[in-house]
Amino acid sequence: MFSFTDSRRAVEVAFTDRHGGVSRGTYSSLNLALGGGDDPTAVAENLRRVGLEFNDGRSLWDMHQVHGDAVAVADPGGDRQTCDGLVTTAPGLALVVRVADCVPVLLADPDAGVIGVAHAGRKGLVAGIVPATIEQMRRLGASRIVAWVGPHICGGCYEVPADLRAEVAAAVPESYAETTWGTPSVDLGAGVGAQLAAAQVELVDASSCTRESDDLYSYRRDGDGAGRFAGLIRTAR
Questions:
Q1: Rounded to whole angstroms, how far apart are CA atoms 159 and 230?
Q2: Do 147 and 109 meet the contact criterion of CB atoms below 8 Å apart?
Q3: How confident is the model at residue 231 (pLDDT cuts 50, 70, 90)?
């Protein structure tokens, strides 16, 4: 169920894999996608299992992700928000970010009790969703922030046209890369890492390549039949 877990004082984090759920076919088995062609009852059961294991059956608070730069403060009493960054100071509330190749970033100031998540794909990297999420956390009182960067497609696998690589690298130079077979690519992880360093945020590398791992979902590998795995973070304070 979890490919990685960690904790810092009262903060707990995890990244799921694709095992331990009830989805079938190409979505097998722990698909956590909000949409797609999977059976919604199977996805609901998968979410229930993750919530039970990670947050003692209490709420998992997620977002409708759109590859943008909007950051919201989680509102458990409201509707799901459309954004790619989500933050909270509410103890016991677990935040969720879903991915299949994009970079899932979990963020926390364990002393201040401020946590956040960010969904950083190519568009989000250029738009600055990670710095925007950090900025919102600091407005809520965070100062010493640590970030866990989860599984995502690596620079050696994320092939793009040369003009698109140039466009992304113009905004984030560290993202300029080449595939293992010698064509233009974007290194999302390197780009996110550079943004974290610029914001003076400690990075914990929990990454592996989604396209190369059968234990993870990958849109680049599996297309429309790909499910989604998730990064989760909570604080007990």
A1: 23
A2: no
A3: very high
Could you give the percent of the chain with pLDDT greater than 90? 95
pTM above 0.90, yes or no: yes
Q: What is the mean pLDDT of residues 196-200?
A: 98
Question: b or e along 41-56 (b: 16 or more beta carbons within 10 Å of the residue's beta carbon)?
Answer: ebbeebbebbbeebbe
Confidence check: pLDDT of 44 > 80: yes
* Structural domains of the chain sorted by starting position, each given as residue range(s) with its CATH number in brackets: 2-235 (3.60.140.10)
The total of other beta-carbon atoms located within 10 Å of residue 134's CB is: 27
Phi, psi of 31 (to 5 degrees): -70, 125
**Cβ burial, residue 78 (10 Å; 0-12/13-18/19+):** exposed
What is the structure's pLDDT at 237? 67
Q: In what order do the strands lie in the sheet with 229-235?
A: 2-8, 11-16, 229-235, 94-99, 60-61
